[in-house]
Amino acid sequence: MTNHRINNNYILETEQLKMKVAKRLGDVMGWGNLVGGIIFGLYMLMDQRNVSFLQYPVPIGMIILGLLSLWLSKKREGDAVRPHVYLLNYMLFPLILLYFIEDAATTIWSLTFLYLLMAMTLQSWKMLIYSFISSMLGLGILMMTAPAQMTVLLGIDDYIIRMVLFTIAAAICLHALYSINDKEKLLYHYIYKAEETAFLDPFLKIPNRYDFNLYVDHKLESTDIFLWKLELNQFQSVYDVLGYQRTDELLLMVKERLEEKMPGDIYLAKGEGNTFLGATANFNKEDVETNLKKMLAYLTAPYDLAGYDYQLTFNIGAAFSGADGETSDELLRHAQFALDQAKEEGINRVAFSSDKLRSSTMNQVQISEALYQANLDSEFHVVYQPQIELETNQIIGVEALIRWNHPQMGMISPGLFIGIAEKNGFIIQLGKWILEKACWEVQMLSDSIGRPLKLAVNVSFIQIRQEGFVEDVLQILKRIGFAPDRLEIELTERSLFENRPEDLAKINALRAKGIRIAIDDFGTGYSSFGILAKVQVDKIKVPRDFIENVDSNPNSQRIVTTIASMADRFQLTCLAEGIERLEESNFLHQLVCQEVQGYYYAKPAVIDQVEKWLSMPREKLIKVVSADKMDIAPE
């Protein structure tokens, strides 16, 4: 039985309701006996009949029981004594009958049935027994002592019939009470089964996340809480290898290890999927990291399942109440932020929520929400960085780059919001808008200068995996009148890393229509050269990381030379990006590198500025750009 769930103490609530009714009846009995005892005593003093000394304790007893009943009804303690005190009131009834036996005995006896109704109302077999004994005693007194001058004369057989009828009524009530009790037990059984389904993990038999939230919120009302979230890494792969049944057995072994290693005051729960949750109010901030690392070391030991050893890895994110939140929802959210940070750092890592982490994460959340609320046409605009052909020293094309000027947050770096857009899916809508906007503006510029310019557009792997991606691209080109052979789609190595057949088929379909494919940031991935053996591309782009100080760094020179030579052998166009110095440009002239782009030649700019540059002599353009000190967001 826990005390943090809203609807779990069903029996307790029922008993409290019964006790509440009993207290009200106790008040009625108490005041009735108190007032009745006083009136009864005064009546006896004023009565002209001879009253024996033994009759005076009756009103005194009524007053005492009345006061005791009223006192017990106000006390929270004494639950075990209270019913008996209440029931002693029953036993006074036959004694009162003795005094009024000549006047109203034949009608007073029928009030005993009220005892049965009261017992049924409170569902108390004790009260039923007291009622039966009291009533039978009263009827016996009437039968044995009723005077002959009573208004209504009854015979002994009449009293016997009344006793039999009352006994039958009491037996029916007793059977009804046991029947009600059995039904209550059955109801409680089903209620607890429903509660178990609602609050417990069906297989591990530990609280689930909903119960965990209730527990944390309950504890936060009176104390501070330390909360952590543990995640089993590569969980889907484990499922794929072992299947659901074996994976559940493995999770059970993880739970058992957690229970073995954790102190008993930690409240353990099962989170969603592959996560476990823990919370405690008894902690020392200086020791929690050490304890969590020890727990991780214990959890990562091999698991023997069906004769095979399985090695698992975990990560933990932790949060403290107060600094990290005042509700279970806030603490779990910040623990998840810390868990994400731990996963970025590697495996078997522990991370704690911090102001910096919270600020960074909340900033990402705000950007994610702002993306969906953004007006593409008013907040976003496309800038273009010219691509120079080294042989002719002329601008032959441009690369389209997106910029976002948020009304409240100002300029937001593409390096920040592009990744977020890929996570929340907004990149699909944004990428389509960029392609259409860039094609239209470059087409207008080409018509204006009288010669066709090439256009390079970055495409996310999320876009490629969408149904109808190829059709959407071709429809945009057709609607604008942009020749497919002038469009170059830039893909990162991440887009091609998995080499999914359906993705490669889309790339080949684009190439079949004349669209060129380029690999951006070539050489920074895990399988750059392996990709070239599987994917048909037209261009590779050497990243800024290799170009920086290439004129003085021998290692960079070897890398860039190797990539340029390899591109020549594969008959691919090689473009070096990120050139910012004359020395870097001069070094690239010595290689088989056909195209370049970078701040040394031109910074990203709006389409009107690109048009002005195209009208300048090459030497003048470089001087103008070199003198330009505008701060432009990086690519």
Automatic annotation (TrEMBL):
SMART domains listed in its UniProt record: EAL, GGDEF
Transmembrane segments: 28-46, 52-72, 84-101, 132-153, 159-178
Limits of the GGDEF domain: 223-355
Domain EAL: 364-618
SUPFAM superfamilies, alphabetized: EAL domain-like, Nucleotide cyclase
Keyword annotations from UniProtKB, A to Z: Membrane, Transmembrane, Transmembrane helix
Identification of the protein by name: Bifunctional diguanylate cyclase/phosphodiesterase
Origin species: Metaplanococcus flavidus
Taxonomic lineage of the native organism: Bacteria, Bacillati, Bacillota, Bacilli, Bacillales
